[in-house]
């Protein structure tokens, strides 16, 4: 198993809480400072609520799906912008993290499908493997071409570009037609994301002008973009991603009129074959929150397959061991953070917390600038959460803690005979943990 793919989930309620708190805190913010097609906050998915950790009847009942039901579940991932150098935001993911996510999809054995596969399956013309992934990227940022595309090409993963008319060849940070055409030759499909990417307030304003004016507006946003993209990039465009996920019933009628068959929201959840085609769920993968990807790659048990846990993909701003999301066979590992790149670090202020231990007496080595603690009681849980926090000399307050999670590889650590092998343990475990995805809960 590759070190950064963790097949086990964080099981500690405290870790879950910590993961969710900053998320809700951020929901009010927007990337208004960045140029280009800034997204509305509506494009971000709803805050994952702390759903009760009890399994719903479906997970424990093997008779949930009758044999005639299609058991395939698709996770549609939604990305926006990528950057190797700029700070991560909700809508902009570090390129390195995107690569780790693609690697995780491969390591989890999930099947990445084309938009055409998705459409054929949705229309009952094709069957797909039980757990499949559709990768979509909204808006048409140039970084799709410079950062994501080389990685997708390397993994041979097909992907879908939801483009909006006014940003194609829009200059600056926008994709050019030439880039889009080239990507089409290597796995890219095109869908529509409107003409002008109107914000919900703009849509509501048009709506208030009366049905006739509103219809004109919708024809321009949905119809014109379809014609434009078809003329420019060929093939019928029958998919549409609502800008900001915002949609009204009139859009459903317009979709039928102008010829869209499959319309995507930003509401997280798995897609089933009979999921309403006007409101297809998508996991918007935020650059700043690792839990969404984990939910997206978690699958519950169905009538003919066991549940499987998703991947924890984490990156820390400073090198740490054991690696974030990585696994160790050592149940008494040395936990260490290399802080040599922290300028103005106040070593006196350093604190380390480890799940199951609380505050631990970690030591700072002034020579190596490593802050380390050797675990002194065998780790018994499948995962271990660490947080390291410090203060800068000239600042009064502690900095935000650096957190990560690593996995204890119990296959190696457990005594034989009595313990199940790790993959089996994961499958058994996954039924209890996956209901943390609020959407899975309602869509199954
Ligand atoms: Zn958008």
TrEMBL record:
<protein>
    <recommendedName>
        <fullName>NodB homology domain-containing protein</fullName>
    </recommendedName>
</protein>
<dbReference type="InterPro" id="IPR002509">
    <property type="entry name" value="NODB_dom"/>
</dbReference>
<feature type="region of interest" description="Disordered">
    <location>
        <begin position="417"/>
        <end position="444"/>
    </location>
</feature>
<dbReference type="InterPro" id="IPR011330">
    <property type="entry name" value="Glyco_hydro/deAcase_b/a-brl"/>
</dbReference>
<feature type="compositionally biased region" description="Low complexity">
    <location>
        <begin position="42"/>
        <end position="60"/>
    </location>
</feature>
<feature type="signal peptide">
    <location>
        <begin position="1"/>
        <end position="28"/>
    </location>
</feature>
<dbReference type="InterPro" id="IPR051398">
    <property type="entry name" value="Polysacch_Deacetylase"/>
</dbReference>
<dbReference type="Pfam" id="PF01522">
    <property type="entry name" value="Polysacc_deac_1"/>
</dbReference>
<feature type="domain" description="NodB homology">
    <location>
        <begin position="131"/>
        <end position="360"/>
    </location>
</feature>
<feature type="region of interest" description="Disordered">
    <location>
        <begin position="31"/>
        <end position="67"/>
    </location>
</feature>
<keyword id="KW-0732">Signal</keyword>
